[in-house]
Amino acid sequence: MTKTKSKAASGVATRQRLLEAAELLFSEQGFDAVSVRDITEKAGANVAAVNYHFNSREHLVELVMERYINPINDERLARLEALEKRSGSKSLALEEVLDAFVRPFVTQVRRSELSENMFYKLMGRCLGDRGGMMPKSVEQGFQLMLIRFKKAFKKALPGVGEEELLWRVHFMVGSMIHSMAHGDTLNRFTQGASGNPSMETTLSRFIRFGAAGMRQEIAPAESPMKKGSSPADGESQSAEAEARSKGPQEEFLF
Fold first, then answer.
1. What are the tens digits of pLDDT across the range 175-220?
2. How many domains does the chain have?
3. Distance CA 61, CA 78 (A)
4. For residue 82, what are the domain limits?
5. CATH number of the domain to which 106 belongs
6. How do the residues of the chain divide into helix, strand and coil, expressed in percent and rounded to 5?
7. How is residue 72 annotated by DSSP?
8. Averaged over 28-32, what is the pLDDT?
9. In Å, how far from its chain's centre is CA 15?
10. In-domain check, residue 18
11. Which residues contact 127 (CB under 8 A, 6 or more apart)?
């Protein structure tokens, strides 16, 4: 091997070590807590290596998010398309749509270099950290996925209005993100009473839980001045109503 090829191979190996070190540290500690020095020390590389191989720490973070989120959104869309093609003009069952939405996490973890536990922690942090800020390519994928799955959920739940539907999906996704980022917390807090279920068991439980929440009856509207409420309560609700009248707020991603 020539010196040029040897140097190139060494550079590729260093870049890969940095990427793997970053993924592991981000999953363990979160994006904000990990420094460039932490990454280079974990990878056994020079402190300048991150800028050399990735231009900046931020670009490295974006690359990690793209590597893990985009394949999941791509698989979600592929699964939903296959289900819709199979069902023809019939609406999909809610559980089928939910399965297409969450199962890609299970299939993608098998292709990851991370352990199952670290993979789900990293996914939870990718979706829950950084205040929803994501690389442009990831955000565009989410927008496309939102449009497609919103239609499928709407067909599966024809009696639920769009605003209510979006909030139900939002709550369902929130529980999914929490479960991935803090999946070991329940076992620790309950001293093992929650067991050590397989991913298939956890997936089945989550789909039943999510479907039940999304199918719930729409609660009747309540008076802004319920019995026992204070004037401050009424002012708060009036402010909320005024905010709603100004138009849609910032759109969530999932």
1. 988 888 777 788 889 988 988 888 888 899 999 999 999 998 755 4
2. 1
3. 26
4. 65-217
5. 1.10.357.10
6. 70, 0, 30
7. H
8. 91
9. 26
10. no
11. 69, 173, 177, 180, 254
